[in-house]
Amino acid sequence: MNNSIFNNRILLVCILFLSIVLTPSHSFSQENPEKMEWFKDAKLGIFIHWGIYSVNGIDESWSFFNDYISYEDYMKQLDGFTASKYDPEKWAKLIKQSGAKYAVLTAKHHDGVALWDTKASDLSVVKKTPAGKDLVGPLMNALEKEGIKKGIYFSVLDWSHPDYDRNTRETYRYKNDPARFKKFTDFNFAQLSELSEQYNPDLYWFDGDWEHKPEEWRSAELKKKLLGYNPNLIINSRLGPGFGDYDTPEQGVPVTRPASEYWELCMTMNNSWGYQGNDHAYKSPSELLRIFVDCLHMGGNLLMDFGPKPDGTIPEEAVNILNEFGRWTSKHESAIYETQAGIPDGHVYAPTTLSKDKTILYIYLDYKVNESLAIKGLKNKIQRVWVVGNGTKLQSREVGKMYWSAVPGMKYIDIPDNVYDKDITVIAVLLDGPVDLYREKGQVIESN
């Protein structure tokens, strides 16, 4: 092999190595990480799927797309959507009381029906339903008054629009008529300009991007335009790789932490996003709280969804869940909002989080321990242990620490029966410094 060939191969290997090293582990954009601080600390958000699909209690948009119902019959629900008992101030107070720090409303789902008085289309609840009024603005105002961050859900696809290439009346494809599809994206831009100018949301929750590539959606241009309205705007991951600020897994609870530094799990209270009167499979408040704690343990947020009825009332089951969340979050506030992901699994048989300075370990118990709670591999000395929410001081001890070994002993915390919360008990463990864990395989005696 001559030197030039050898040198070229070495150069190629170096280029490949650098491309692997320098490629980010996720495709999220955080040009302004400071704007993410409130999102990271928020921990709990409320998702609200409200639209004409609540009239018949059927799947939002998908019911006609999947031919469970004709498009014409789906749109007949416009006549039954009244919002006659809509009380945005009551909604906002309930959301705040739950402990949530942000809320996201479906301003437009895939069916194309806008909940505000859009000038870009005639298809809105203002023009086409008995509601006859803007439903987005009043809630945004009420949320802002309560100090809740304002989020707007917007579907970038629209199965009702004549210039979208997968609508119900005719079929064409982007590749055959890109100029026509650009007319559709112009329409999207116009509606998003209306939402930005009128309501100034803190967050956009996009959906529907899977049918086209980012360049077809004009995602880069759209993001630039939206940030022009609000430089601190946060955008979810559904405008395509590289255009979102956080990841948003859906329904299934992650077993391992998502790749993004910032993420939220969006999950329904029952099995439906919008209101379905026949869906009584509501998760219990305790079950949802355990899911919430899983998110806290992995350093993420929970965006918990409910669907209001067509008259604007919130189902009793959802109200009960929000009230129970409020009871638990208000009691355990110090162990929720300014925490970070906990210690690795295996050190204690429970989810955990850490304070921002890593000197307090929070342990979340949804069970009563047998005799004592055990923590293994904790090098730190324990300064104090207490029950979050009532301040009861607990006793701790270390067992099995050998003077010749670097392996820490087992730390035990005694927990009396009378301190348990009815859902999840939180134990705070104050350490003598930032958490320091033993993560090795143990050792054998070398000198005694």
Automatic annotation (TrEMBL):
Its EC number is 3.2.1.51. InterPro entries: FUC_metazoa-typ, GH, Glyco_hydro_29, Glyco_hydro_29_N. Coiled coil: none annotated. One of its GO terms (biological process) is fucose metabolic process. Transmembrane segments: none annotated. The record marks 266 as: May be important for catalysis. SUPFAM superfamilies: (Trans)glycosidases (SSF51445). The keyword Hydrolase applies. Alpha-L-fucosidase is responsible for hydrolyzing the alpha-1,6-linked fucose joined to the reducing-end N-acetylglucosamine of the carbohydrate moieties of glycoproteins. This is alpha-L-fucosidase. It comes from Algoriphagus iocasae. The lineage of its organism: Bacteria, Pseudomonadati, Bacteroidota, Cytophagia, Cytophagales.
